[in-house]
Amino acid sequence: MPTVPGLRSPYAKVGRIVYFGRMLDKIRLHAAGTLPVADYVPNLGKGFDLRCCSFLRVAYDELKARVLAGGTTDAQLLAWAHERGGARTDEECEIWNGFMMKRGWRDAGAETLAKRIAESHLEHKTVLTMFDYIDFDEDRDPVTGKSWMA
Predict the structure, then answer these.
(1) Residue 32 — very low, low, confident or very high, per pLDDT cuts 50/70/90?
(2) Using a CB cutoff of 8 Å and minimum separation of 24, what contacts does 67-75 make?
(3) Is 0.90 topped by the overall pTM?
(4) pLDDT band at 39 (very low <50, low <70, confident <90, very high)
C-alpha cells in the first residue's frame, strides 16, 4: 500500500490504548478525500476498527459522527468514548494492547497474516504481527523503531 500522510502506526497510543488514533486518522482522511479508496475504504468500520469500537463499547457510526463534527482532540474523543461506553481499567487496556499488538502471531489471524505478507511481497521483512505488517506495508519499520515500546 502507499504511504498515507497523516495516517499513524497502529502501535501509536492515544491515552492508554493502541490503534484508536489510527482509526480516527482514517475517518478524517476519508472525509478529506485523501484516504486511498481501494486499500482502506472497504474496511472502514470493520476489522480492527470494529474491534476497537467494541472494546470501547461505542458504535463506529456514532464515533465517526463525533470525529467529523470537529473541534475535538483525540484525547477528548477517547474521553467521550469512555463516557459513552464506560471507562476501561488499566488491566483491560493492557489486555487490549497486548491482544492487538500480537494479533496474527500464533493465533487465529496467523493465516491471514501469512497471506497478506505474501501478497505484499514482504517475506524478507521481520513481520510477526498484523501491526508489523501494517507498518511495513506503509513504509514504516516497526522493528527498527521499536514501535511497540512507544
Answers:
(1) very high
(2) 67/24, 67/27, 67/28, 68/27, 68/28, 68/31, 74/14, 74/20, 74/21, 74/24, 75/14, 75/15
(3) yes
(4) confident
Q: Give the C-alpha separation, 6 to 8, whole Å.
A: 6
Residue 150: the pLDDT is 64
Closest to 18 measured CA to CA, from 52, 47, 42: 52
**If we measure between CA atoms, which residue out of 11, 7, 6, 5 comes closest to residue 131?**
11
Structure confidence at residue 142 (pLDDT): 87
Within 10 Å of residue 71's Cβ, how many Cβ atoms?
6
Which cell numbers hold the place of 106?
A: 500464533
* Contact assessment for residue 8 and residue 25, using Cβ atoms and an 8 Å cutoff: yes
Q: How many residues does the chain have?
A: 150
The domain segmentation of the chain, as residue ranges, is 1-102, 103-139
Beta-carbon count within 10 A of 100 CB: 20
* pLDDT at position 100: 97
